[in-house]
Amino acid sequence: MKTDLEYISVPPPQELNHLIESIWMLRNHSGDSAEAIVLPDGKIDLFLFLDQEANFEIFMSGICNEPIIKHPFPKSVMFGISFYPTAAEYIFKHSFADSLNQKIILPADFMGFCRGDLDNFESFCKNICDRIQLILNEPIDNRKVMLFDLILRSKGEIKVEAVSSEIGWKSREMNRYFRKWLGITLKSYIDIIKFCHSLKQLKKGDFYPELNYADQSHFIRAVKRFSGSKPTVLSQNNNDRFIQLTVLPDE
Known about the structure:
- A hairpin with a 5-residue loop joins β4 (44-50) and β5.
- With 251 residues, this protein is α+β, with helices and mostly antiparallel strands.
- It has helices spanning 86-92, 121-135, 142-153, 160-167, 171-181, 186-196, 199-203, 216-227, 231-236, 243-247, and strands spanning 5-10, 20-28, 36-38, 44-50, 56-61, 68-70, 76-83, 103-106.
- It is globular, with a radius of gyration of 18 Å.
């Protein structure tokens, strides 16, 4: 599919891979003023954004459990860092429970960033990793490392009870942790991860669930809940409306 969106994504260094999922760039070469939709992906995101009029902005988004409409962003560039939920506690030391599905505007010098950081993506990647290394001053609780690693490796095909049994952490305590830092339950997070791992098959036009949904009707309801659209609409992705589907690599 021809697209006016240029996307580059790189993984973090190994020592940060329990905190950062990816560092990426999204450049929109089109001058069209069309809205886009961001789908829930279970990440906390930090954005540096420059629009066609050279207006610079830094903002964040916490966990989303519903589709977010993104206003038109013609002729713009965005650098971003997608964090795993552990970053709330260990990097930002800030709860995102009250920021569910919301955009958080930050000072223009947040974490020492500036407009010039958007000039070179490679330098940006190095700078953000260096800054996070300086912020990170305590080891991550091994139960939390195991928790998110287990859910991600399972592609969301795991029940809360199985997670609790596997890592030795009571489900009530895990839910308390999720509500405190993210504003959602563990079950909701698992459902989001499973939805994300279904996007590849939807992009291919395969509407029968490959993951452990009870049946096709259950799968369709889950897709509509997190995307606001039917699976067929996501698959068509007219005008690159669903950003994650546009930048998802073809198999």
